[in-house]
Design brief:
This protein is about 45% helix and about 20% strand. By secondary structure, it is α/β, with parallel strands linked by helices. It has two domains: about 230 residues, Aldehyde Dehydrogenase, Chain A, domain 1 (3-Layer(aba) Sandwich); about 190 residues, 3-Layer(aba) Sandwich (Aldehyde Dehydrogenase, Chain A, domain 2). Helix 3 crosses helix 4 and helix 4 runs parallel beside helix 5. Bound molecules: nicotinamide-adenine-dinucleotide. The site of nicotinamide-adenine-dinucleotide has 28 residues, from helix 7 and helix 8.
Length: about 450
């Protein structure tokens, strides 16, 4: 705790100087961060393979190169993001000049989870640096290899008074959450999100909460089933289903269930099998035994409640591998349909009319993602009748890849958003600044009030 307090005090002090940091200085830090990552790519890939058996290509696409994209985008746009934005005066502020300044929030805390342990720690850091913040990083203890590499790279290359990475378990998070950070950027479960928000409330710190939940894929009659099946297989089984925006379950017209399960099996074989066997060189493992057992229990309980295994259902405890699994006839009351699955198990839920499917989505917590498959008119209608953090139409996951789109949840799936300008904004305070003009008419409304003034005011408004 003593060390944490010292670090925090040093960052507090530094954050005041940091307010003056120029776009060029911040870009320099981002370039340095990119160089450090590039020089150590192999180490990072190795750690990701150790923690999650991430194939190098997948780790590059979804973690390391994803972050390069964020860095490059920030470097390209930072000068314009930092420029005060002009806004017009209205009648009440006539003749004044009005601007929005983006000032650094100050000292920020970034807490990240284990499923994309590199991207989810470093991408918010990119935004924190861009916005001129100091940052304390707390990676997940459940992905120890990646956390170790990251803390070494950060702590060997940055001044701790500016950026520091503190490894450790929940007790470190708890100790950090006692401090009056200016902003807390938390990525993880909804349950811990509530703890973080409660801690932030004690100091009235602002928060960005990137949380989880059950993201449905709603397939309508007009969908191209072949293409849909291939995309669902990819989005669901990437990182062995441990992706916050993975389709959690599928909603599908009843008469299409058998055909769709066959298509899912066909594409699972195409993407994830070789010689009739699961190809583990392209398929991740479950993070730890606790989650492996949680997923096994969820599946067994669902089967006990009447669910049928369409295919898959192999649980290999020796290397924490669960084969891509599809279940039908799953009870909505089962754990599998009550909690976020966060593993390679896909319930296919049938509906008889679209109204019921929309009602089912609306009865539940607002999801982080809602995927819609079908023609664009139906998609527009479903978008207007539901609420979700983000949506991709005839696609999965890809909305996260465009930094021009804000990424985040709503309600139980999160608060605030990240990536690109939205990430920069999360770590900035939008400060209103009004410059009075030389021709200053404000004294007209000062007391004592002249007769007839109210009448004049009434006319104006
Ligand atoms: P986790 O267990 O690694 O926890 C995340 C962080 O919170 C860790 O650093 C951990 O030390 C800390 N933590 C855990 N318990 C705490 C407590 N009681 N008090 C303070 N800090 C605590 O990861 P997780 O929560 O299992 O992550 C998986 C969840 O994250 C899923 O729900 C997933 O959907 C969600 N997620 C969301 C996003 C997103 O962008 N919205 C991205 C990835 C994961």
């Amino acid at each position: 705790m003593e060390h944490i307090n010292e670090v925090f005090a040093a960052q507090r002090k530094r954050s005041i100087q940091q307010r003056l940091s120029s776009a060029a200085e911040r870009k320099g830090k981002l370039e340095k961060l990119k160089r450090i990552i590039q020089t150590n790519e192999e180490l990072i890939f190795k750690a990701l393979a150790e923690d999650l058996r991430k194939p190098v290509f997948e780790a590059a696409l979804t973690e390391v190169y994803f972050v390069y994209g964020e860095i490059d985008f920030a470097i390209k746009n930072l000068s314009s993001w930092m420029k005060p934005k002009r806004v017009s005066p209205t009648l009440a502020s006539a003749l004044t000049r009005n601007r929005i300044y983006y000032e650094p929030k100050g000292v920020s805390l970034i807490i990240s989870p284990w499923n994309y342990p590199f991207q989810l720690l470093i991408s918010p850091l990119v935004s924190a640096i861009a916005a001129g913040n100091c940052a304390v990083l707390k990676p997940s203890e459940l992905s120890p290899a990646t956390s170790k590499v990251l803390s070494r790279l950060i702590n060997e290359n940055f001044d701790p008074a500016e950026i520091i990475c503190l490894e450790g378990d929940v007790t470190i998070s708890q100790a950090l959450l006692k401090l009056p950070f200016d902003h807390i950027f938390y990525t993880g479960s909804t349950q811990v999100g509530k703890i973080v928000m409660e801690a932030a409330a004690k100091h009235l710190a602002s928060v960005t909460l990137e949380l989880g939940g059950k993201s449905p894929a709603l397939i309508t009659e007009s969908a191209n089933l072949e293409r849909t099946a291939e995309k669902i297989v990819w989005g669901k089984f990437l990182n062995a289903g441990q992706t916050c925006i993975a389709p959690d379950y599928v909603l599908l017209p009843e008469h299409q269930v058998n055909q769709f399960v066959d298509l899912l099996q066909h594409y699972t074989q195409k993407l994830y099998q070789q010689g009739g066997k699961l190809n583990k060189s392209v398929y991740g493992k479950i993070i730890n035994e606790r989650h492996f057992n949680r997923l096994k229990n969820l599946t067994e309980n669902a089967v006990a409640q009447g669910a049928k295994i369409g295919f898959g259902g192999d649980f290999e405890s020796s290397d924490l591998t669960i084969s891509p699994t599809v279940l039908t006839n799953v009870s909505l009351e089962s754990g599998l349909m009550q909690e976020e699955i966060f593993g390679p198990i896909l319930p296919v839920i049938s509906y008889t009319n679209l109204e019921d499917a929309i009602a089912l989505i609306n009865e539940r917590d607002k999801p982080l993602a809602l995927y819609i498959f079908g023609n664009e008119n139906i998609a527009e209608e479903i978008i207007s009748r539901t609420s979700a953090g983000g949506t991709a139409v005839n696609e999965v996951l890809m909305h996260i890849s465009n930094p021009n789109l804000p990424f985040g949840g709503i309600g139980p799936s999160g608060t605030g958003s990240c990536h690109g300008f939205y990430g920069f904004k999360a770590f900035s305070h939008e400060r209103s600044v009004l410059f009075q003009s030389k021709i200053d008419m404000s004294s007209l409304v000062y007391p004592p009030f002249k007769t007839g003034l109210l009448k004049w005011l009434k006319k104006l408004f």
